[in-house]
Design goal:
about 450 residues
Length: about 450
């Protein structure tokens, strides 16, 4: 069932009233003041349209018009640990957080043994038990003014994952955060909120995995805020393998202190409409930011990657590589921005976007951008769009390799440039297996 913009707004405001009443005493907290500010903001802006420059190539009308049911309360939907085995990474068994339809499941999770002072917990639990630390940071980086989806997600802020790594602490094992979507006779919406705080001279690796157990319709509106302390290192891997009928809008805001290093690897495989936005602010000298991304889309899928690297301090480096592989009638969008502020001298920034089109109907809108207000910098950007090199295909076939296998070899080589940058070996292997399966699925679709 679709709705007019007025009906949509009325419905979300009504949902907020119900949500607010369910909070009981929490409705008098500072966090709920942030929620009220957010719903007021969303009430003014509504959903973005293609008339908005930041959304010019991505029409979210299918999301805005659909009548989604708000998920209330926690329910495992009968899911067992065995159901999740196909999504789990063996070397990430030490620290695993599982959320089902946006709500934390303690039964399916295993935080494991943690170093002194480290917290890995449900955000809802942290806000109930001791919200002081979390409240100081929530909404400070991903502000309600950022975009309408952040405002909407903040209004319904309730659960997600909270990770705190104190100064001088190294977390030996990566943390896998598994978001599982399942069940629901009607289309449903969830708004997971994640907060990651890493102190000085600390180290953390996180893998966010978005998966589904049924091919149903749902909307994941995810907001993550990450603070990387002075001289700390954070690797943040994000894998999306959603239902073919799912909508996903993910927003990540990163705040980097002096001498910190942040690496993001984003890989997207599934979903009807996927929008990934990441903003990194280099707020201290000698920081380094690396953003890598890979998107594979086929059929009628739309995958939109928006990136922003804000060089707010001098002597910082940034590296960016985003690739897309598009088949069928799929559409891709890449909008990458690099800001170099007036005092950010000695900036070194590189940005590259490459797209491989496997069909004549697939399209990409790419828009790399540089805004430079300093004069002593080294900044480059570029974008390429093309198809498989027929000479390379012919060479492989002349060596006895079949046409489909030749195309797969070249496509895998194109994608591996991004996947090989992921530090976790088991995650790399899992992604390569998924990539191979998706390419084969695309061939079968074309043959039909």
């Amino acid at each position: 069932m679709t709705q007019t913009p007025e009906q949509t707004m009325k419905r979300y405001l009504s949902h907020f009233e119900v949500f607010e009443k369910s909070l009981n005493g929490e409705s008098r907290s500072a966090v709920h003041d942030l929620r009220r500010k957010a719903i007021a903001r969303f009430g003014k802006t509504g959903f973005p349209t293609t008339r908005d420059e930041e959304w010019r190539f991505t029409n979210v009308a299918p999301i805005a018009k659909m009548s989604f049911v708000q998920v209330v309360g926690s329910d495992r939907h009968g899911i067992s640990r065995k159901d999740l085995e196909q999504f789990l990474l063996p070397d990430l068994s030490a620290h695993r957080m599982v959320l089902v339809n946006g709500r934390f499941s303690r039964e399916l999770s295993s935080a494991g043994t943690l170093p002194k002072g480290v917290t890995i917990d449900s955000l809802a639990n942290v806000l109930t038990v001791d919200q002081q630390l979390a409240a100081r940071h929530l909404g400070r980086y991903a502000t309600v003014e950022s975009n309408p989806f952040v405002a909407l997600g903040t209004a319904f802020l309730h659960d997600g994952v909270f990770i705190h790594v104190p100064d001088n602490t190294m977390l030996e094992h990566p943390v896998q955060v598994l978001f599982v979507s399942t069940g629901g006779a009607e289309p449903f919406v969830v708004h997971p909120r994640n907060l990651v705080l890493v102190g000085k001279q600390a180290r953390l690796s996180v893998v966010e995995s978005f998966v589904h157990l049924e091919n149903n319709t749902y909307f994941n509106n995810v907001v993550s805020e990450i603070v990387v302390g002075e001289d700390s290192v954070v690797e943040f891997d994000r894998v999306q393998h959603e239902s073919a009928r799912a909508f996903h809008v993910g927003t990540v805001h990163v705040h980097q202190e002096r001498g910190s290093r942040f690496v993001s690897n984003s890989v997207s495989f599934g979903g009807a409409i996927l929008r990934n936005s990441i903003t990194a602010v280099l707020s201290g000298e000698h920081g380094e930011c690396t953003l890598n991304g890979l998107a594979l889309a086929a059929g009628q899928q739309l995958v939109d990657n928006h990136t922003t690297i804000d060089h707010a301090s001098p002597n910082c480096d940034s590296h960016e590589l985003y690739k897309s592989i598009l088949d069928g009638n799929a559409r891709g969008v890449f909008n990458g921005k690099i800001f170099v502020r007036k005092d950010a001298q000695k900036t070194d920034a590189k940005q590259t976007n490459k797209t491989l089109l496997l069909s004549d109907e697939a399209t990409i809108d790419t828009k790399p951008q540089l805004e430079i207000f300093a004069d002593d910098v080294k900044c480059t950007h570029g974008a390429t769009v093309g198809q498989l090199d027929e000479d390379q295909v012919f060479y492989l076939r002349s060596r006895g390799i079949g046409l489909d296998d030749a195309r797969d070899l070249l496509t895998n080589a194109f994608a591996s440039d991004v996947i090989d940058r992921i530090a976790i070996a088991s995650l790399r292997m899992q992604l390569l297996e998924t990539l191979h399966a998706r390419l084969k699925q695309g061939r079968l679709t074309r043959e039909v």
